Amino acid sequence: MTTKNSVEAILQRMEEGTEAIYAQYREKARQAKASYQQKRQELDTDFRENARGLTGAAQVDLAGRLTGLSDLGLASSGAADQARISSRTALLSSLGKLALQHARESAAARTAYENTAASLETEGAEKASKYRDTMTRLLLEQQNKDREFAEKQELSRQKLALSRQKLAQQTSSKNSGTDGIVPPEKPTQMMEAILKGARKYNTLYGYSYVDPSAVKKAVRKIIEDEHLSKTWRYQVYVIARSMGYYT
After folding, report:
1. Which has fewest Cβ within 10 Å: 8, 11, 73, 225?
2. What is the pLDDT of residue 60?
3. C-alpha distances in Å from residue 55, one per residue of 42, 43, 68, 86
């Protein structure tokens, strides 16, 4: 995987991870709102039922008092009117207290919901920010590893190129065989240099590997170099083939 692809993969993971965090907290906010709405419904239901209960109880109490007055022949008296007024006043007072309690409980539920919603929003933003910071550090670390690995590869390629340049300049009989120039490196040493130069680094998963195509290209270049000893080139070919890098 190239450096460009590695960077794009990390950026994609950053965006997907950030969106996943926000989605998680949106769901939590939705659940908090649903819970608040259910609480409000329960408070409203309780208020209506309690109000009906107070009204019914007041009616039953008034009816009993009026029946008692009627038995005394006072059904149309001022006492009966006073009983009705007293009952109505007591009922309104009770309903007023009930309404005040309902308003307080509703306000408390609203405040609790708003605090929860604000806390979730802040927590989600902080978690997303920390995740992006972590991914940004990872991105910088991998970019540094990419650069260091690329520099090492380039150094290996330069050394290999320098070695080949020296081979091309060696014309003395001491370094030449009957069928061409014999490099100072043994075929096994040359193969090790080729493998080192063809090694790449997967920054996404954090491991290095040898690129077979790069090995094959380097071996082919040596095999096709007619300035080199045929025997030496053949030995390089045999080693590469035995390792599965050339057929």
Report:
1. 73
2. 84
3. 20, 18, 20, 14
